[in-house]
């Protein structure tokens, strides 16, 4: 008896242990935001809620402030995570923005996850030590790799609030191991 080709292919794939296409992760509902430490630790710092908005998807980031410590730096309070090597502080994007993304444009979510670092012995906010996590979609969620930015650039409102200020020209790659939190994930 001769089997149809599609059935033969399916049986062959199953016998070889070949999996079919995996379901792609979708930007839906509420997902966890996790920073991954150099020592293998994971800190769940909050959530992002994805809401359909026509061709785009709305994003709302909510930090779990219990995970952070309050630091008063340069006359401003910051939510920070002290680590053995550095103090890592969240910087909320301070201006109105669309707060929406698409599968290939995650800039406004990336702008909601801005940080800076400083040495524990240093005084004041070191806004030129900004960290921007460039997000990439994967089968399991979004993975962010750190890039360097100067957060002083957002000290004044942008002329166009619909355009993210940190485009590719304003960011530079850094080695993930250079920062205590070398990876950020959303899953």
Automatic annotation (TrEMBL):
Keywords: Signal. It comes from Denitromonas iodatirespirans. It comes from the Bacteria. Residues 1-24 form the signal peptide. Residues 153-172 are annotated as: Disordered. This is DUF2330 domain-containing protein.
